Amino acid sequence: MAVSGGIGRRFATGVAVTTAALGSFGAALAVAAVVRVHLPVLDWGERVRLVLRWTAVGALGGLGVGVAAGLLSGFVARRWVRGILVGLLVAASIVPVLLAGRRSPGVPWSALGAPQEYPPLAERRAAPGAANLVLVTIDTLRHDHLQLYGYERPTAPHLAVLARGGTVFEAAVAQAPETLHSLASLMTGLYPHVLDKEFEDRGQAGAFIGSAFHTLAERLAAGGYDTAGFVSNLYLKQENGFGQGFRHFDDRSGMFWWGPKGRWKRAEHVVEPALAWLERAESPFFLWVHVMDPHHPYEPASAGPWEDGSRAAPHAAAYGALSIRGYTQRLKDLRAGRPRATPEELAYLVGRYDAEILQVDRELARLHQRLESRGFDERNTVLIVTADHGEEFVDHGGMLHGHSLFDELIRVPLVMRGRGIPPGKRLGGQVQLVDVTATLLDLAGLLPASGESPELDGVSLLPALAAGEPPLHAALSFIDTRYVAYRTPDWKLVAAFAPYDLGPPSWLPWEGLLSMARVALGRPHHPKIGLWHLDEDPREQQNLVGNDAVSLRTLYASLLGHRQAHPPRLVASSAGPGLNRRGRRALRALGYVQ
Ligand SMILES: [Zn+2]
């Protein structure tokens, strides 16, 4: 009896020690996560609850391991051997979690709400006499480098003329600070996380816009539109799903490319075939033109009138000697502050960038004039000009784009002109690019009725235009699904998806511990988290995280609600070819693909 009592006691001790050890491990992970990640949006009660839940998950894991430890120690009489065995078991449970946890956390799609079905397109015909739709997207064009939005240099005189005959939207938000997600959103009317989910489900194989999504061009073509697209950005290639629905899709003539002598394709190479196509376009038609010129390298064909050749000479020589990779690397170095950009170098780069805008503007004028001369004008056509995202010139220390969600990146110009668009107006409030999708469909008479599937994530702007009332919807903008900016006309909150769930996402001890470890040990999310009162601080200089807990929590709650209202969709796409190796190599040279 004494022997079995000893075994029972040793068994119980083994279970208790292991459970306590792993429970403490869970608690330590939770505390580390709270300190490193959760601090801004959790109040004290939530922090305590988080630590308790994670302690429980750790203890649950400890209980499982503890049975093994108990059995082992029950049959081992020597105390020090028992100690070593239990220690080894605890270490064997903790070390792999710590090692695996050093990887960045995955996206907890569950936090975005249960996926909803994305059914086939309902049959719909365009309204008789529906307007022709011309969409011009300009890559990397900051709204505030246009006089329309207060810039001092006349970078786009023709766009200004266009705008006088149409409506300028004061604040338009792109759904991402880079081409792929931003234009995929515009072309589907869906938020990027919806598309990302499906892409991830396919193991990132094939086209980014899966075949089962109904693109803007597909919806218009199904309604009876003639459709043509002319694009210049590698991400927008046919293989990546952007050609879906276009009867004519030209991703070659103007594709942004470079040779040993630095011969870039320019806006004219995109616009030229579009003009040729216009000669045989049949109304109603949808024409999409995407030009790339303001994208780096900043090498316009001719200098802008604001450029000073003698002052620019040393920089022109230095940049002129660089390959595309070298040019990208130089801008990345400036972004990293090694070295810091001098005011002269920055002025040189901005001057070149602005001259590229001017170059695009000339082509915009040519396109507009051709439309008018072909009789496609206010009576029967709507022209929309916007951008996929902006560019950083060390406004917040950065260069290039895609790495933050400040307004210099996510605010884009938006001008509409033509039939049904009030001339000479500026509309305040805030709109987003997914609204442009809905607006184009509305202009065609092809907007799905509210509640009709498949739904769009944006709303038509025609009612707001007709009433002259500024739309005040919140907008979402994403960096690779991990970070989201929730922007209202007055406020912006930038938060991270991944660590903000009051985890653990799973009660299965191993999974739970692993995801906790990823949050606790993964890259800290502090730098990209922020809160700005745009009303008082439009340049986003005063990060109010830590100073304004009430606004932070209110906005965070609104963000969660907005996010839940736009869940991922269940889409069964067949994998297309995806971008080929040559395309991926070219994207690497521009600093995109790792
Ligand atoms: Zn772009």
Features:
single chain, 594 residues, alpha/beta, Alkaline Phosphatase, subunit A, eight-stranded mixed sheet, four-stranded antiparallel sheet, 19 strands, 12% strand, elongated, binds zinc ion
| Ligand species | zinc ion
How much of the sequence is in beta strands? 5-15%
Category by helix and strand content: alpha/beta
By DSSP (H or I, 4+ residues per run), the number of helices equals: 17
Instruction: Walk across the major sheet and give the strand order.
Output: 6-5-7-2-8-12-3-13
Unreliable segments (pLDDT under 50, ≥5 consecutive)? none
Please give the radius of gyration in angstroms: 28 Å
Layout of helices and strands, plus pairs?
Blueprint: H1 2-38, H2 44-74, H3 79-101, E1 116-117, E2 132-138, H4 157-164, E3 167-169, E4 172-173, H5 179-188, H6 192-201, H7 216-222, E5 226-230, E6 248-250, H8 267-278, E7 285-291, H9 309-320, H10 324-336, H11 343-373, E8 381-387, E9 392-393, E10 399-400, H12 407-410, E11 411-412, E12 414-418, E13 425-427, E14 431-432, H13 433-444, H14 462-467, E15 475-479, E16 483-487, E17 491-496, H15 509-521, E18 530-533, H16 549-564, E19 569-570, H17 581-589
Parallel strand pairs: 1-19, 2-7, 2-8, 3-13, 4-14, 5-6, 5-7
Antiparallel strand pairs: 3-12, 4-11, 8-12, 9-10, 15-16, 16-17, 17-18
The structure holds zinc ion (ZN).
The site of zinc ion has 6 residues, from loops.
